[in-house]
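User: Let's play a game. I give you a shape written as tokens, and you guess the letters that built it. Ready? Here's round one.
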């Protein structure tokens, strides 16, 4: 399973240095993300390149988006601080917290 956060996903639409390697790694995969992916992606793309909104919507159809339930929110609140690079997600329910999804 490949988990995509919003910054990684947006790079597939608004190219950056890592875009080609990310696209290569995702070939043939059906990534997973939280339901926030759609909201955050469309807002970012609308702000930076509104002409790419149709492409963003099309790519979102290829990602399994998991609803953020009260149980996931409660679990996320107890997790230690998680950070990478320039960002710390305000909510990051790791796949292990998602009912019915196994990381093994």
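Assistant: Ready! My guess for every position:
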């Amino acid at each position: 399973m490949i988990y995509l956060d919003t910054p990684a996903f947006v790079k597939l639409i608004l190219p950056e240095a890592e875009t080609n390697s990310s696209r290569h790694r995702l070939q043939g995969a059906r990534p997973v993300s939280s339901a926030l992916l759609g909201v955050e992606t469309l807002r970012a793309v609308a702000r930076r390149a509104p002409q790419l909104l149709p492409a963003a919507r099309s790519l979102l159809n290829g990602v399994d988006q998991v609803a953020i339930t009260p149980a996931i929110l409660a679990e996320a609140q107890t997790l230690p601080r998680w950070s990478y690079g320039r960002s710390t997600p305000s909510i990051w329910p790791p796949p292990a917290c998602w009912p019915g999804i196994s990381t093994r």
